[in-house]
Amino acid sequence: MKQCLMAMLVACVLVLGFAVVAVNAQSGGDVSAACSSCHNLKRVCLMVGSKDKAGWEKTINRMVANGASVGNPGAMAGYLAGLAPGTGPCQ
Ligand code: HEC
Predict the structure, then answer these.
(1) 26 pLDDT exceeds 60?
(2) How many A from CA of 80 to the centre of ligand 1?
(3) In this model, does residue 74 exceed pLDDT 80?
């Protein structure tokens, strides 16, 4: 029984880990797809590291008003706020 629980725990951790990686990878792709048609991605990358999640949410909402299509602005804001400068789509 104990072994069974351990196996389930390990499986859970693995699945969660993959899910987190998949979400991050997708958001990075989303940023380059959604944010490079009107201006260069550099314009976005310049701000990485200086805006928090609320700041990115404001910016993304303004970009949506400009005409950008973003599936999940909250998730993208969280992704951009957590990104270290020079990583993800900003390499
Ligand atoms: C439909 C065209 C368009 C798309 C798509 C677009 N932008 Fe913009 N962006 C603009 C315009 C126009 C400006 C300059 C005016 C302004 O700041 O609203 C700008 C300026 C910016 C700035 C500099 C100003 C600031 O507040 O720091 C950032 C950062 C930015 N955009 C991020 C993004 C992100 C992130 C995305 C993807 C979700 C995106 N943009 C997609 C049109 C667009």
Answers:
(1) no
(2) 13
(3) yes
Say what percent of the chain tops pLDDT 90: 68
**Cα–Cα distance measured from residue 30 to residue 5, given in angstroms and rounded to the nearest whole number:** 37
Given this model, what pLDDT does residue 28 score? 87
CB-ligand 1 contact for 70 (6 Å cutoff): yes
Query: Measured between alpha carbons, how far is 88 from 79 in angstroms, rounded to an integer?
Result: 10
Backbone angle region of 52, left / alpha / beta, with phi > 0 → left and psi within -120 to 50 → alpha: beta
Residue 4 identity = C
Report d(CA 57, CA 62) in Å as an integer: 8
Distance (angstroms) between ligand 1 centre and the Cα of 19 equals 29
Residues ≥6 apart with Cβ < 8 Å to 56: 76, 77, 78, 80, 81
Instruction: Confirm or reject: Cβ of 50 under 6 Å from ligand 1.
Output: no
